[in-house]
Amino acid sequence: MPDTLHLLESCLVAALRAAVPSAPADVDPQVRPTANPQLGDYQANLAMSLAKKLGQKPRDLALAITAQLAHTAAGVVASAEVAGPGFINLRLAADFLQRQTAAMLVDPRLGVAPAAQPEKVVLDYSAPNVAKEMHVHHIRSTCIGDALARVLMFLGHQVARQNHLGDWGTQFGMLLEHLLDQGWTAASSRPIEDLNSLYQQAKSRFDAEPAFAERARKRVVALQAGDPTSVAIWKALTEESLKHFRTAYARLGVLLTDDDIRGESFYNDLLAPTVEELHAKGLAVESQGALCVFPPGFLDRDGNPAAMIIRKSDGGFLYATTDLATLRHSVDDLKGTRLIYVTDARQAQHFAMVFKTAELAGWLQGNVRAEHVPFGTILGKDNKPFKTREGGAAKLADLLDEAEERARRIIEEKNPSLSADEKQQIAHAVGIGAVKYGDLAIDRVKDYVFDWDRMLNFDGNTAPYLQNAYVRIQAIFRKGSLDPQAAAGYPIVFTDPVERSLALKLLQLPAVIDSVAQALEPSRLCGYLYDLASLYHQFYEKCPVLTADSPAVRDSRLALSSVTARTLQKGLDLLGIATIERM
Ligand code: ARG
User: How many Å lie between the centroid of ligand 1 and the Cα of residue 512?
Assistant: First the structure.
């Protein structure tokens, strides 16, 4: 099926060219859904931006374009009006919308065309640290990154997921040294909870005992040089952590597997050559025994050129060194053309400096680009970074337990007659979905307050609200003993304005998915699905489906319901959230 927005855009460009033959063919007609539906379905702003270039008044140009639309958009646009200084308000033909929606219903991709130029995307997300338990803040990178992976894959891009585990570096020096002091060998093993507290102990010693700190630093260098004892214990620690990460990922329903693991340690052998190359290119200079890059345009707190240390005076490499090596690997070996890093906003400067350095070194060039996808902090009710009552970071596992438990209590109250198994399955989908959606629905760079009532509200912009809209539609088909698939092929006829609004919204799916892929902003998909579900609820109140006045109207409403259900399901799936059949 032709995409609604693209079709409208080409009608406008054709109208422009008919009105002004000298107009360029590659203009962006700037079509957006109108903010106020009273004015029309879409607004086009091309007359405003092109008038000057074409030597016309914006309003005159807009009038000339609308006059041509009668020819170039026959059957697509029902009316076009010029407003204000030269905006064009467009209303689509009902007949066109009806046919488009019916076509969407039979299209397995729901009208979303694969990208014209599929690319190799290297997507770095989740990346928890070994020997530490996952905590609430890990939801962010894990869920945002996973939603982006799903959307980009749906558009036909090849996505190399990279789980850049923090499994190397200074913190292992501390931990290994502390464990060796306690007589650890490679055969020693302790569950992740214990590693967590051993890590805390190591950290306190590192801060308090200079001699220990010195040994810890030497230990990192030994580990990085492949010292067998250090490596053996390190491997055992990593394996223990992986068990913990696997459990969390399975529970969250994210795509990450062991195959996606590219921890910091993976890049060990690339560190020295990366540093050497920067040195050889004159980009890295000695400063107080350390080797640093001073990428232009970055200042430290005192207003001096900011240094990015890539090799310490003791020979140890750092986080930045690893990221530079990672970037080269992503370009040279993985052949990525779009490199995406999903981390908290506090790392924005780090990535900007890494990218600038890579550009100067010639590693990032041509069509290859790197993007940092920053996100804000999860806050507690006190507006400070979310902590447990005891003051520690809230463990992810505990939080997911609580989510499922709260969801189970709500389900118990709303639908006590379900079987225990079903309740369990629904509580899982609703509880985990609520937490993930609660994270994805807010502009990602904003901080947000972690609030169970917001996330589990059945009437707000939440996972349960969307899951419930889907359930409502499934219930209609169950009640009528109908297969939702059967609606495919039913013609759609509008008998009420809300049906038209619903169809119009459905047909915006491809544009929304494109914009998520461009801006790397899953909240746009959430906002869209919420609007769609709200319209469906309005439709449901006003337009009886099974008891419609005539078989033709009933079939049309079944068709609208079916395509809405599929859109909700697909949309939630792209966010990594499950749908359920009843709740
Ligand atoms: N492990 C890091 C952290 O916990 C995140 C790593 C992100 N990816 C990267 N290539 N630096 O903050």
Answer: 29
267 and 145 share one domain: yes
In a domain, 199, yes or no: yes
pLDDT at 565: 98
pLDDT digits (tens, 9 = 90+) for 66-116: 999 999 999 999 999 999 999 999 999 999 999 999 999 999 999 999 999
Query: What average pLDDT does this structure show over 464-482?
Result: 97
Domain end residue (candidates: 378, 412, 430): 378
**Percent above pLDDT 70 for the chain:** 100
Neighbours of 410 (CB within 10 A): 18
Ligand 1 atom nearest to CA at 323: 10
User: How far is 229 from 378, CA to CA, in rounded Å?
Assistant: 39
163 alpha carbon – ligand 1 mean position (Å): 9
Residue 164 CA to ligand 1 center (angstroms) comes to: 6
Please tell me whether residues 78 and 186 are part of one structural domain. no
> Does 456 reside within a domain?
no
- How many domains is the chain partitioned into structurally? 2
| Residue of 317, 347, 351 best suited for mutating to test ligand 1, as the one with most atoms within 8 Å of CB | 347
How many CB atoms are closer than 10 A to CB 254?
Answer: 22
For residues 181 and 318, membership in a common domain is answered with yes
Asked whether residue 537 is assigned to any structural domain, the reply reads no
- Predicted local distance difference test score (pLDDT) of residue 188: 85
Q: Are 88 and 82 in contact (CB under 8 A)?
A: yes
Residues within 6 Å of ligand 1 by CB: 124, 127, 129, 164, 166, 323, 326, 341, 343
- What is the pairing mode between strands 42-44 and 77-83? unpaired
How far does residue 387's CA lie from ligand 1's centre (Å)? Answer: 21
In a domain, residue 137? The reply is yes
- What's the gap in Å between 374 CA and the centre of ligand 1? 12
Q: At what angle do helices 210-224 and 228-252 cross, to 10 degrees?
A: 80
Please name the amino acid found at residue 346. R
165: domain range?
A: 120-272+312-378
Q: Which residue CA neighbors atom 5 of ligand 1 most closely?
A: 127
pLDDT in tens, 245-285: 999 999 999 999 999 999 999 999 999 999 999 999 999 99
Please report the atom of ligand 1 found closest to the CA of residue 165: 1
| Residue that finishes a domain, picked among 41, 73, 92 | 92
Q: What is the CA radius of gyration of the chain?
A: 28
To test the ligand 1 pocket, which listed residue (164, 274, 308, 377) has its Cβ within 8 A of the most ligand atoms? 164
Beta-carbon contacts of 218 under 8 Å, excluding residues fewer than 6 positions away, are 173, 314
Atom 8 of ligand 1: nearest residue by CA position: 164
Task: Give nearest CA residue, ligand 1 atom 4.
Answer: 128
Q: Distance from the CA of 19 to the center of ligand 1, in angstroms? A: 54
- The fraction of the chain above a pLDDT of 90, given in percent, is 90
Q: What is the pTM of this model?
A: 0.96
Ligand 1 midpoint to CA 319 (Å): 8
Name the residue with the closest Cα to ligand 1, atom 11. 323
CATH of the domain at 52: 3.30.1360.70
Number of H helices, E strands in the chain: 20, 13
**Per residue in 291-334, pLDDT tens?**
999 999 999 999 999 999 999 998 888 999 999 999 999 999 99
CA pseudo-torsion sign 145, 150, 155, 161: positive
Instruction: List 162's β-bridge partners, or say none.
Output: 124
